Automatic annotation (TrEMBL):
<keyword id="KW-0812">Transmembrane</keyword>
<feature type="region of interest" description="Disordered">
    <location>
        <begin position="380"/>
        <end position="401"/>
    </location>
</feature>
<dbReference type="Pfam" id="PF06813">
    <property type="entry name" value="Nodulin-like"/>
</dbReference>
<dbReference type="InterPro" id="IPR056555">
    <property type="entry name" value="NFD4_C"/>
</dbReference>
<feature type="transmembrane region" description="Helical">
    <location>
        <begin position="262"/>
        <end position="281"/>
    </location>
</feature>
<feature type="transmembrane region" description="Helical">
    <location>
        <begin position="476"/>
        <end position="497"/>
    </location>
</feature>
<feature type="transmembrane region" description="Helical">
    <location>
        <begin position="619"/>
        <end position="640"/>
    </location>
</feature>
<feature type="transmembrane region" description="Helical">
    <location>
        <begin position="231"/>
        <end position="250"/>
    </location>
</feature>
<feature type="transmembrane region" description="Helical">
    <location>
        <begin position="330"/>
        <end position="348"/>
    </location>
</feature>
<feature type="domain" description="NFD4 C-terminal">
    <location>
        <begin position="438"/>
        <end position="646"/>
    </location>
</feature>
<keyword id="KW-0472">Membrane</keyword>
<feature type="transmembrane region" description="Helical">
    <location>
        <begin position="12"/>
        <end position="31"/>
    </location>
</feature>
<protein>
    <recommendedName>
        <fullName>Nodulin-like domain-containing protein</fullName>
    </recommendedName>
</protein>
<feature type="transmembrane region" description="Helical">
    <location>
        <begin position="442"/>
        <end position="464"/>
    </location>
</feature>
<dbReference type="Pfam" id="PF23262">
    <property type="entry name" value="NFD4_C"/>
</dbReference>
<feature type="domain" description="Nodulin-like">
    <location>
        <begin position="11"/>
        <end position="83"/>
    </location>
</feature>
<feature type="domain" description="Nodulin-like">
    <location>
        <begin position="194"/>
        <end position="348"/>
    </location>
</feature>
Amino acid sequence: MAVLKAGSRPPWVGLGAAVWVLIAAGNSYTFPLYSHALKSVLGFNQQQLTMLGVAIDIGSNMGILPGLNLSPIKLMVVLKAGSRPPWVGLGAAVWVLIAAGNGYTFPLYSHSLKSVLGFNQQQLTMLGVAIDIGSSMGILPGVICNKFPPWVLLFIGTLTCFLGYGVLWLALSQTVAFLPYWVLFCMYVYHHTFSIWQLWLALCIAGNSCAWFGTSVLVTNMRNFPLSRGTIAGILKGYAGLSAAVYTEIYSTVLHNSSSNLLLFLTLGVPVLCFAMMYFIRPCTPASGEDSAEHGHFLFTQAASVALGIYLLTTTVLDNVLSLSSPFSYTFLVIMVLLLMAPLAIPIKMTLYPVNNKKSGILDRAVGSSDCLISGDANSDKTEPLLTPSSSTTNLGSFQEGDDASDVDILLAEGEGAVKKKRRPKRGEDFRFREAIVKADFWFMFLVFFLGVGSGATVLNNLAQIGIAQGVNDTTILLSLFSFCNFAGRLGGGAVSEHFVRSKTIPRTIWITWTQVVMVITYLLFASALSGTLYVATALFGICYGVQFSVMVPTASDLFGLKHFGVIYNFLLLGSPLGALLFSGLLAGYVYDMEAAKQQGFNLLNAEVSCLGPNCFRITFLVLAGACGLGCVLSIILTWRIRPVYKMLYAGGSFRLPQSSHH
């Protein structure tokens, strides 16, 4: 909604600025100045040249879209009413989160980057870090999700995905061997190479699509189901974890194990999929209380995701062991698509067998004015600011709008003695970002995430080389095993933490403590490189890695509220790329290359040279085990600190907040 400036001076200021804009708008008149160069350099004839001039005329007159009245889109959003739309959005979110898992495909094409482009392991790990950094740069999506509808975030994500993976495909397929138009982005300088940083930036942009996709669906669905945060986080993060196995299935079946084809699929297929889902991901009016059917719907969605995970793991193993023919492989692919569509059965069932919604109320949303309602049928949608008064202050009722305006009103009222001075929010209430970052709990969560997930990202980035070093040349089974166990950890972590926090008021972070203990043991298994332990260690690692993601999501919302959840959670996610940069880019790659140099007599000019044996990553895994040991200590301290908060929030067996919160 636009703000109209009052007074006689602003219109003339706008007129003065408009002069400059219209000068810029006359750029089409410059065609005669460079048309002769187009004709001579590119070899066009006059007819082709005139067609180019027509293109400028057509483009400059395509003003229908700019002429549309799109101003309400900026800060207004349609809240879908009724019980069915949230489940439609959840079903669509499954597909978006599969798309958001594109960062997990790095092990499928990393070997091709190394062999075709001649990178060493340290350079390769830096490319893996680029994906981690890009996928965790979610602060901007977190800010935008409070001001724009989810489709805006999805649209930006599709653009970054197309641009990032498109450049990578051009480089790997050697369609374009050198890309001089990229801006050189250097944080770590290789004196002997230039193109590595062009690809680093491209991978960072491609990985950033994960942040836009994930933020749009995670924040929207957490707000659509505010009373089941742990369950929703587990389901959504679980499907994101399964994405690696989905891509592996597509990679081996449709793309015939071609890294170039995979990158082309990520360039074109993923953006098309997310474009198709834009309409269905939207904020909805959540129910005010426990819905008797909701629990069954969640169980069905969880069961469908488990069936999909088991199916993907089984078919990947069968395809590698039995070398199935194309008809069988494509049949498996069709069944996978049907299992991915399973959550949509819930809104279909609601349509075919509608129930009386009078039993379950709709969460009261203080819109502020009846002008916000759109006339229509009985189930008309509600148009209102994207964030109405805080969910924390009205028992998860709504999200606050107009922070700045309300601050001014309260300040004036304080001066007149009408109200008391605003107090700082307590843990469990809605925090602004600047209020959250001064809390010790916030930084404990950040460090725990940095040590646990950051070390885990190191293993994931080097998973293909870890397998090769231990004698496993085909790493698709390793990636599929990790994906399934990652999914199991995410789904189980969300469900288990939700159960115990409701029944025993046990803080969710206790499960992070236990998973980091197991990760210490897992890293020691990796370091030992004993026969038969690689697959066991990968499975344990996948479970622990997944649990930390699904538990951290509802923990952040429990402690700091849902209103600014997108910004706060995405800042916590920065711990992952920082850990990957430290443990993977600066440690794992260096140790690997030094050991490979010893084995090959310091002859690393051949890009096909690989390090073999347990010493390639042993020092790295011992350091990671120490890091997770420190993470265990910090998570124990965090759990002890927030135990009283959870006793207050879940004392009645479900999420509730004090009604006296005004911030």
